[in-house]
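Lab notebook, bench 4. Still working through the backlog of constructs that have no structural model yet. Next entry is a single chain of 258 residues. Request: give me the structure tokens for it.
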Amino acid sequence: MPATPLIEVRNVSKRFRIPSVRRETVREHVLDLFRPRPSETLQVLDSVSFELRRGETLGLMGRNGGGKSTLLKVITGIYPPDGGTIVRRAGITPILELGVGWNPDLDAIDNIDLLGCVMGLSLGELRAATDEILEFAGLERFAKLELRYYSSGMASRLAYAVAFRAVREVLILDEIFAVGDAGFRERCQDRFQALRAAGHTLLLVSHEPHTIERFCERALLLEGGRIVMDDDAGAVADAYMRLLTEGAGPAAGGEGHA
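Model written out:
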């Protein structure tokens, strides 16, 4: 009998309503309080289904605007689905929009405590890991510097370093290997490999075919809000590159999910 998946995505759909009329004056704002505002519906995800199995490293590829970020946010509970269901059988650590929970008036050490607590770590665990987190991020010299003076790259490195300490059974990463300099990316890759070896279940989003082929056994191709391919990581990476080159519709091949 196959093992029960840790995450099941069943016919999930998500749409957003976009106002089609702009309000530009105070009078228009007041009048619109008493009448419906015209809008259009944007279908971002359309009947998406797949499973993430225990110990698996699954890649997710797709063009910009294809629904990848929305899918991750639905899986992690940030957005509710408009249709379908998500079944989660394990704790999830998402590394998506990093920096939520930062306080720019506090230094790095205090912000490590803030973000770490949001991610489920205790203060004791954070205090014991602070030096390691700063070293991983390459920010030892700036530990007492207020975050308002950090560059976006420095803040991202700090957030990733904290998140890597808070890993639960399932880790979801969005373009993790596109942050920081070569040294930091290498540390992230080493940490990622260590998590794989320890048996963690991983969902990795990347536009880089080499990354998907190197780190994933299986991958999904998301196009127009639908999974159009579920196959070996190398095959999906090749199909994604053809999709970019041809600029055409959904890639052919693999297992279609509609």
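Notes after review: The chain has eight helices and nine strands. The radius of gyration is 20 Å. Flag for follow-up if needed.
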